[in-house]
Amino acid sequence: MHAGTVALAFFAYALAVFAVKRATYPRHAEPPRPFPLGWEQGHEYALAVSQDFWWAKRFKSRIKQFQPEELRAASMRRYVEVNNRLNLWISVALTASIFIAYAVARHSATYQLLLAAGVIRLISRSFEVAYAFGRDVLQHAENTTGLDKFERIKLALVSYVELFVYSAGAYLVLPTTKGPVEAVAISLNVGTLTNVGFAFPDRNYLVCNGIVFIQVFATLSLVVLSLASYLSRGEKDA
User: Fold this and answer.
1) Residue 197 in contact with residue 216, Cβ under 8 Å?
2) Alpha carbon 189 to chain centroid distance?
3) CA dihedral defined by 167, 113, 45, 24, rounded to 10 degrees?
C-alpha cells in the first residue's frame, strides 16, 4: 500500500466523517446563526488519530454551547442515537465494498484506496468507541443525553456488532489473510476474545498483525467496562 494512497484515503475519510456528522446534526433546534465551528482547545491529537472522535466532540460541543437548555438533552440524545445506527451501516457498506473490490479487482487502485480507508476506520472508530464508553464508566461523567442504562446497553451492543464488521474489512491488509472469509474469521475470534492467536499464524508477521489489538482494546472497553457496568447498575443509577 503506497503512502500516497494512504494519504488520499485519510483526507477523503476525514471529509466523509465531517459530512456525516454535519448531516446528522440537529441544527433545527438552535437559533439562526452562522454555522462555522469555533476552535475548541483540547484533544488536538485526535486530528491524526481519530477523525470520528474529533468531529463528534466538535458537534456535541456545539449542541451544548448553542442550543436552548430545554432542548439540549433531547438534541444530544437524538444525535448520539442516530450516529450510533448510521455508523453501523457505514461500516457495513465500507466492508462490503472492500470485499467486492477484493473479489473483482484486488490489484486495482480502487481496492487499495478502500482498504486504506478500512484500516483508517478501524483505528478511528475503535478510538471513538473505546473513549466514549470507557469515559462514561470510569469518569462518571454527567449524563447529558438522558439515556437510561437499557438504552446505553443498546448503543453498546450496536457498536459491538459494528466493531466486528469494520474490523473484518480492515483485516484484508494483513499479509497472512487469504481472503474475506478468513478476515471475517479473524474478526470473530479476536472480537469474542476466544482465540486472538488465530490472527498470528506466522511469527514472521507479529508486528504487522498486531493491529488486531486495536479491536481487542475496543472490545474490552465495550464488554468488560461498559456492558458489565451498565448491567450492574440499579434502576436509580440508570
Assistant:
1) no
2) 19
3) -80
CA-based radius of gyration for the chain: 19
Exposed e or buried b per residue across 25-55, where buried means at least 16 C-beta atoms within 10 angstroms of its C-beta: bbbebbeeeeeeeeeeeeeeebeeebbbbbb
What's the rounded Cα separation, in Å, for the pair 63 and 84?
17
CB 160 within 8 A of CB 87: no
In b/e form, how buried is each residue of 105-117, taking b as 16+ CB within 10 angstroms?
eeeeeebbbbbbb
Q: Is the pTM of this model over 0.85?
A: yes
84 Cβ contact list (under 8 Å, min separation 6): 155, 158, 159
Q: Is residue 173 within 8 Å of 1, Cβ to Cβ?
A: yes
Cβ-based neighbours of 21, under 8 Å, separated by 6 or more? 55, 56, 58, 59, 83
Phi, psi of 142 (to 5 degrees): -60, 135
Summarize pLDDT for 127-162 with one digit per residue, the tens: 999 988 877 777 665 667 777 778 888 998 999 999
